[in-house]
């Protein structure tokens, strides 16, 4: 059998359905006695991995409204500005139901910008 190049193999894989590819991966794992999940498990169980390193690698943040403070109306306006598609009633319920997440799984820059806007309006915010 002729040896296939990496590009040729990729072309073959592109033609396969997900079920066919899944079956191939299982057969590959059995034939070579390997698993596709081993590197992930080894990385998670690696000795010397400090919790501080995990915190540095965090790329998704939650912005949690702890309290609206004295200027609830201003905070409601900012919440409506930050959370797209939120009506007045929903924004009011969110602010009055604090502590509640305002934004979930956003980039650090977006979380910091939202925090600044909400704190400027008088709210108490936590970024997790």
Topology at a glance:
Elements: H1 6-15, H2 18-32, H3 38-44, H4 51-56, E1 61-67, H5 72-82, H6 88-96, E2 100-106, H7 108-120, E3 124-127
3D architecture notes:
With 128 residues, the protein is of the alpha+beta class. Helix 5 packs across helix 6. It starts with 5 loop residues before the first helix and ends with a strand. 16% of the residues are buried.
List keywords for this structure.
14% strand; 128 residues; three-stranded antiparallel beta sheet; alpha+beta
Structure classification: alpha+beta
First-residue to last-residue Cα separation: 55 Å
Number of strands: 3
Write down the overall mean pLDDT: 78
How many DSSP H or I helices? 7
Strand order of the largest sheet: 2-1-3
Give the biggest sheet.
3 strands, antiparallel
Low-confidence stretches: none
Strand content: 5-15%
Tell me the series of helices and strands, N- to C-terminal.
HHHHEHHEHE
Q: Rg from C-alpha positions?
A: 24 Å
Helix amount, in percent? 55-70%
- The shape is rod-shaped
């Amino acid at each position: 059998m002729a040896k296939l190049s990496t590009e040729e193999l990729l072309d073959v894989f592109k033609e396969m359905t997900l079920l066919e590819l899944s079956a191939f991966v299982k057969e590959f794992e059995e034939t070579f006695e390997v698993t596709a999940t081993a590197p992930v498990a080894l990385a998670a169980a690696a000795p010397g991995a400090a919790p501080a390193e995990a915190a540095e690698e965090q790329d998704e943040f939650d912005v949690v409204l702890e309290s609206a403070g004295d200027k609830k109306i201003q905070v409601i306006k900012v919440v409506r500005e930050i959370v797209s598609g939120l009506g007045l009633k929903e924004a009011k319920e969110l602010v009055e139901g604090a502590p509640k997440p305002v934004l979930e799984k956003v980039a650090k820059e977006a979380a910091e910008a939202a925090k600044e806007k909400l704190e400027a309006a008088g709210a108490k915010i936590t970024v997790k």
